[in-house]
UniProtKB/TrEMBL annotation, chains A, B, C, D:
The keyword Hydrolase is annotated on this UniProt entry: yes
Keywords: Hydrolase
Name assigned to this protein: Nucleotide pyrophosphohydrolase
Gene Ontology terms, MF aspect: nucleoside triphosphate diphosphatase activity
Organism, as annotated: Chryseobacterium hagamense
Length: 109, 109, 109, 109
């Protein structure tokens, strides 16, 4: 039910029914991802931290994830692997003893 | 292996070891997501569409996905459900006969 | 002292000494502008509204403005004119009686 | 005619007629700037580098500049000064002999 590969198949099916793969070069997928993230961000503009519409958040988050998954699929990236690899890198950049309770960026730690 | 819930558990474990949940209000998670998407986009700046470093792409895409998953987790959103719901909405906005082979945005179709 | 055209000349001089105009197509200038705006935004990540470093803000804002000016210059846009035109449009979208003290977006007014 | 201070006065007048200064904390101005830059970027999505609508570009660029100017005005930043200061810094990061005809980022030069 939470299997990413099945989800990606649904997204690819939607894309291919519309013959849209021709537009989905890597650079434009990166643009689309950034644009959708910005639309999600707009839900919070001029608002306090938890003042947003949940229905809109669901839609914008789905848009973000769909482009992220399409970019992963295009380059045969295994989402499980790239996230676990990044967590390992972050563990080195943000050792618990230095970063606990501290939001400072690693290059300023 | 591609189970989203297990992945989210790993991300949350990394966060909680550092006691970072206190910083993760919804608005700042949306900022982080947008900022990471922009870092991914930067891989393509002044470059042609497929000229990018795959290792960097993996890292930036992982960062984007981690904040997207944290935002979903914060609001108990089921990623499978929100994506399938959005695909349904997109099927109405982009009917196959109007949008096949056509990248025009729905409000200009 | 605050003459935009003189400023643009300085920016163009810096660009031309490095022979960078060849990279400055409109799409990549738009990417650069979006990426710099995101770097400015990052100054506020995990922070309260007025908690930022002024020196960093100056630098990031300068970067944003330089790409905005380069994009205007590339298309011979008069910055004075495009801003006054947009203010006029915004006056129609946001009539004072409906929008006074109200941050709601025009399409939800 | 291209005097920035006069332009900023027009923008501030529009803002104050609507009593919007109360919403314009620095963080949200940075969000607005980033969101508007992303809307400008969207004009180029799925398009080749010079395939965009000039009328739309004018409007989006005006929006970007207005928020950049409002942020500068809020902190009494002199736009002329911050840009000339940044050009000086960039001259050190990008010496002509290393960066001529080369789009590589300074930290990879």
């Amino acid at each position: 039910m939470s299997d990413i590969n099945k989800l990606i198949k649904e997204i690819v099916k939607f894309r291919d029914e519309r013959d849209w793969e021709q537009f989905h070069n890597s650079k434009d997928l990166a643009l689309a991802l950034s644009i959708e993230s910005s639309e999600l961000l707009e839900l919070f503009l001029w608002k306090s931290n938890e003042d947003f519409k949940l229905d809109k958040l669901k839609e914008e988050l789905a848009d973000v994830l769909m482009y992220a998954f399409l970019l992963a699929d295009k380059h045969d990236l295994n989402i499980h692997d790239i996230i676990l690899d990044k967590i390992k890198k972050n563990e080195e950049k943000y050792p618990v003893d230095k970063s606990k309770g501290n939001s400072t960026k690693y290059n300023e730690l």
